[in-house]
Amino acid sequence: MSLKHSLALTSWFRILEQGMMEFEVLSRSSATLIKGSNNKVHVLTSAHVTHPFIWRRYYPGEQYDWLEFVKEEHVKCKLDIRDPKTGIPTATFKLKNRMFLPDDTNLDISLLHLESMNDLKDLENYGIVPLELKETDLQGEENVEFFGHRAEGDELLLPQSIKGKIKGFADNKLLGIERVFAKTDIPCQQGMCGGPCLDQENPNTCVGVLEGIVNPTSSLEQLRNHAAVIPTHRILQFIRKVEQEM
Asked: What is the pTM of this model?
């Protein structure tokens, strides 16, 4: 089983004006390398990990009130390749400080870039290459596989893959919410958000990115514990807009 389709991503923050002298962990998740146009390569991950201060609904309660002091300029992110048995980083790659968010505030994705394009060769040596986004969206009943990292405690991220089948769709154009849902062999794990959803028939093609897991107590009983996937056309719209700004 290959677990080389995703990377671990950690966001860190430091607020000097609040007396913080060292960076501390902000959040952790998975990330996906995506092929862009004209030899561009993008790092796709979850916005609630790079910008949790914007996605406060994911961080309810008074224990997260400190997020109101965090801004993007306080944050840096890095990528890791994690040992599949220990979850310990075996290689680390820096990312540029500039992060891109979609105009659609319902779209939980963030786009980053490697600090050095020379890192692509090192990543390739580890068996990690940028994935192609499938131009056409899923139709239903496709066999897919999710790749990412399962969070264990405060520090470890263990590579994880979970198979599933596309089972449902949500399309509310008025609210700008379009999602695909997959029934998985086991529920996707915390830490896997931002990882790719791949077509089992063509494992180098990304057919979506994991946004999250439907609550097991959801009123939509048929979708409980299903994986919620951001469809490729929404991701491509976002990437093409970012490439125009680069």
From this structure: 0.91
Q: Give the model's confidence band at 175: pLDDT under 50 very low, under 70 low, under 90 confident, else very high.
A: very low
Give the integer Cα–Cα distance in Å for 192 and 128.
Answer: 17
Strands, E, within the chain: which ranges?
7-13, 24-35, 41-45, 75-82, 89-94, 110-112, 132-133, 143-152, 156-172, 177-184, 196-199, 202-213, 227-231
Q: Note the pLDDT tens digit of each residue in 184-200.
A: 999 999 999 999 999 98
- The pLDDT tens digits for 52-103 are 999 998 898 899 999 999 999 999 999 999 988 888 899 999 999 999 999 9
Question: Would strands 89-94 and 110-112 be described as parallel, antiparallel, or unpaired?
Answer: unpaired
Q: Which two tokens stand for residue 84?
A: 């599949």
Give how far Cα 106 sits from Cα of 86, 137, 173, 176, 198, Å: 35, 19, 11, 7, 23
Q: Where are the alpha helices (DSSP H) in the chain?
A: 47-50, 119-125, 232-245
Tokens for 213, please give them.
């897991």
Q: How far apart are CA 15 and CA 57, in angstroms?
A: 22
Are 133 and 106 contacting, i.e. CB atoms less than 8 angstroms apart?
no
Q: How far apart are CA 148 and CA 138, in angstroms?
A: 20
Q: Is 197 exposed, middle or buried (0-12, 13-18, 19+ CB in 10 A)?
A: buried
Distance CA 204, CA 64 (A): 38
